[in-house]
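Try it yourself: sequence plus calcium ion, in.
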Amino acid sequence: MSNVSAIILAAGAGTRMKSSKSKLVHEVCFRPIVEWVYQAAAGAGAGKIVTVIGHQAQQVKACLGEEKLYALQEKQLGTGDAVKSAMPNIDDGGCVLVLSGDVPLISEETLRAAVDYHLKNRFAATIITADVKDPTGYGRVIRDENDSVKYIVEEKDATPAQKVVTEINSGLYCFDTGLLRAALGELSNDNAQGEYYLTDTVAILLKTGYRVGAFRLADDREIMGINDKVQLSQANEAMKQKIIREHMLQGVTFINPDSCYISPETEMEPDVVIYPGTLLEGNCKIGSGSVIGPNTHLTDVTVGENTKIESSVLCSSTVGSNTNVGPFAYVRPGSTIGSQVKVGDFVEVKNSVIGEGTKISHLTYVGDSDVGEKVNFGCGTVTVNYDGQEKHRTTIGDRSFIGCNTNLVAPVTVEADSYIAAGSTITDTVPADALAIARSRQVVKEGWKKNKFGSDNK
Ligand code: UD1
Ligand code: CA
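Structure, out:
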């Protein structure tokens, strides 16, 4: 696309959110509101993107990344003033998308289409508009008898007759950069709010003899702005439905889409099945035939094919194919779980490699460990990885068999094909093919109770 840049307005206070956090860093489907807008601008082909910050500027910067381009609007004197503060960063000779930081559902496709429409018609400005049932709170688009745009009037400045108009200004625009710059210079704050309205540039451009167009959307859901927590939840709902719908069209089965949240980055192959109460956050990749949920939360997890993960929490880890995880497993960051593995109930795995075919069926903690293939963990095994000061690794060779209730005091090595007797506390290397027993022998005291309490005591 030819020389398109973007300005994102994100300096406002967002008081209606009633939050100590900036409105713009609240999340919709795991992604901050302002980042949705940024991604849409980038996806629509904007080369240079300048975000205008003011209120809680540092939070917005931390969210989008310090390396991005920012313009500081010292005082919130209105949307026109906000755009003006970004203009020194924008070069003439192309067009510029002006976007509201609090309208996260806008898609890159719509922005692209609006820019195309703008360029094709050689407009000085194009306003993205929509007809809505309840226009309350929005600026109204006023047209003349030929249906051409005349100006935008803010709700607070509107006459009763103007308030009846249902075509609203979305707050998203495409401008010819040079003409916008000139029009901004002519803004005044002579209005109900004493602000410099960006919307007044429309009348200014028309008066100077330029043409202004309206790109009217059939579907107004994309331009929904977020001002309070009710709208935040509505936006979440809309975005969630959009994301899940796309996965379903690509062949993923959702048993109950309403109860699931899927991040925009998540990738799933056809024939994945998602059960109710599943959250896939961050960068998740799920292979064909895998079944996730119910009640499962994955964050940055890659899963192979035909794997089952039920009622479990996994973060920043990889799981192979034909593996079963859960119910009630917790896989913490840095774990690589192989194929044909079983990680059963109440098992915690952290920063460990689990080889193919290994079984950790129940009530076990495997931390900082390198586990080979076809290892069998008895119930209640604990890798004792922390000495109070430092973490140590445990190494377990292929096909070794760890008896129930074993402590493996790291650093320690259990070599291949070895056996450990149940209840052992292992502190030294177990050699290959050996049996290690590290507990005291059983002592039996015959008739002990009778001797102690007498024969009548039952
Ligand atoms: C604005 C439009 C209105 C439109 C509506 C759509 C104007 C005058 N009005 O009204 O026609 O229907 O959006 O949602 O533009 N901001 C700054 N600095 C400021 C003021 C605002 O950065 O000094 C930012 C805000 O953070 C926000 C965006 O600009 O992201 C819009 O500002 P807001 O005050 O919400 O405008 P509206 O009253 O909603
Ligand atoms: Ca707003």
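One thing you can check immediately is this: The first strand starts at residue 4 and ends at 10.
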